[in-house]
Amino acid sequence: MQLNKKVLVFLISSTIFLAGCWDRVDIEERGFIVGTAIDLVNQEKENEYEVMMTNQFVIPSGIGTLMQGGGGQAFMNVSEKGTSVFRTNRKFSRINSQEPFYQHLKVLVVSEEVLIQPHLFSNMMDFFIRDHALRRSIRLLVAHEDAKEILNSTPENTDVPAMYLDDLMENVDRNTNTIKPIHIGEIQELILNQQSYVLPVVRKVGSMAEYGNVVVMDGESNQMVGSLNEDETSGLGFINGHTEGGVLEVQVDESPLAVEITKINQKMKITNTQKNNVEVEISILIDGNIAEYFGVESVLDEKFLEKAEASTEKKVKELTAKTIKKVQQELNTDVLGVSKNLYQFHYDFWQEVKEDWENGENYFSSADIKINSEVKIDRVGSADRIKMKEE
Amino acid sequence: MSDFKYGDETISSREIMIALPAVTIGVGILSLPREIALLTVGADGWIALLVAGIMITVITWMTSKLAASYPGETFLSYSSKLVTKPVSILFSLILVMQSLLLSAYVIRVIAEIAKAYLFDRTPLEVISLTFLLVVVYAVSGSRAGLFRLNMLFFPIIVLITFILSLFSFGWFEMDNLFPIFETGVRDQIKATEISGLAFVGFNILFFYITLVKDTKKVPKASVHGMLMVIGLYLLIFFVNLGVFGNAVTGNLVYPLIELAKEIEIPGGFFERFDSFFFVIWIMAIFNTTAMSVDVSIYALQPFTKLKKQTLLFCMAPLIYIIGMVPEGSIEVAKLGTFIGYFGIISSSGITLILFTISKIRRGRKKEHAAK
Q1: pTM for the whole thing?
Q2: What is B13-357's CATH number, 3.60.20.30, 3.40.30.10, 2.60.120.280, 1.20.1740.10?
Q3: Where are the transmembrane segments (chain B) (predicted)?
Q4: Which residue in chain B has the smallest CA separation from A134?
Q5: Residue B1 pLDDT grade (very low, low, confident, very high; cuts 50, 70, 90)
Q6: Among A29, A125, A188, A240, the residue to mutate for chain B (most B Cβ within 10 A)
């Protein structure tokens, strides 16, 4: 019996540890945040900015189920102003009774105004990378205008804007000017590496959002220096693999032809490492299908395919040349990945030139970048011709 | 108890082989990729990791060779033959201290990590205590049972590491491993030193080999055990570097946990892989703690003449208090570094001293015999 008493005392005292659960939060009390937008309100002092954060909470009853449609809006946007992201986030608790829950945060939209300020972007990202509750796979978008407006885009077929944006970014292989989504984990890498990079843009069109094109960020100040248009973004995609596919429109004997790209591979090689005469060779291998043709030639003809391939190659060269010209002459930022290649395969040379790559002597602008493109058309669709030559 | 088939307190050399990685792999590897990446360029750190591992493997081989050449004898008994009794007591206490400190450190780190990632509001002290209570429960049972628990958990830990690596493939970029061979020699040596600290824990061999019946295979088994540790460490290191790149790995507090957070397995249930990973890794950490608490109890018993359980209940509060002493994560990290150095230097030192003396003695004996 002595032993039993001991056991009893142990069991009773152990209830102290079993009774409560410090971290229990009922699911009804949780405010699921799926999207966040950051806008600049004003600059208070040098290096001190007031930003507006907008959190998008999901209202589960608004979503409804498959059988029974939801009633009312499925989301709620709440904005707060402040200087640090974390404190601003805490401010939400003053107006929202639910406890904010970030583990399902999917999309982060940052307005261009934030990016234009030096260092503000990297400062804003700190919380999203540092906080344990947040996942590294949160996707980042840049808004040309107000970021919080983007979180209001609800086409008829969607309920929650953040989810809609997230799904939109899955379609990257459809167009050459949409780049692979960038997630927060990568942002840490980009900022730490101090090499220039691009971020994808989202634009509001009516009640919809349009994903495409990029803005160019300087690697040192993490400040936006410009943006690329549709063609330039496509060219960039071909050079460094940001793009997964898309469509190229070319002319074959005066008739338009649309080539659907199924695979892009690229290889960069630095052939000459002399400070003032860095030579870069980029070969781009593209596989494609014929998707649409307005002409009357037989697409099964080998000669025709050769012509089609040649004009696609020319098109790729044109697009990439535009991009190279813009980033070398106008923006003077190496978003092509030449500096990364130098760091990885010409480490000693890179140590010599890294101070003068984009600044100072500007070796990047004077680098000679050659593009070789090789296009292979595999498939032509299910029909050869749909109209005959006019006699 | 006596009619229980596996109730006898003997173990096989295979259990030693598994016990070694079970003790060694714990909290060290969670932050090790960061410490190595900070010192090296690209993925060069693998050289440091490999060199440190091989050096420790050699020492481990010597330790087990030494202990195996005195089958059935306890550490106190064979070491007093080689060095004098007082010295052997001193050695014994140093090794015990090492295990006690290690277990105190580990229960603290597991609480820190669990608090950061899992329980936001639960007090640190409660998490530590809960974990320690489970460890105490495990240690108060059969010692051979503890070894079998190692055998049970270890394959699961290896499996989760492989799954993690496999699913990281989508995020893995070969480019991140470049440039290669650009790290300076001094940085490599420093990185080797730091990597060595993650191999602390082989001091269990001094005591546990006594329990092995057939000691012939023990040295080979312990080398195999250490090689498993090196293999797993290298795998984790490469996957981390390949997924995050050098700069990010060097700037994440626990790169291995972040890796588990980064990967997402499509299909809902396993989407949150990190929670799954946590559960398994806590098993690894449990093994480390349970083994090091047990070995210190086992080594202390001859001095006290107390029952195992009584001694355990005396030591547990001590471990808990030591674990709660450091304030803040920086002091915890300092304690970790101290334990690493203390553990590696003392265990290696004791091994080298005893091994050399025993070799000389044996040599002399042979000479005598020849005469």
Answers
A1: 0.88
A2: 1.20.1740.10
A3: 16-33, 45-68, 89-111, 123-140, 152-172, 192-211, 223-244, 276-298, 310-326, 338-357
A4: B261
A5: very low
A6: A188
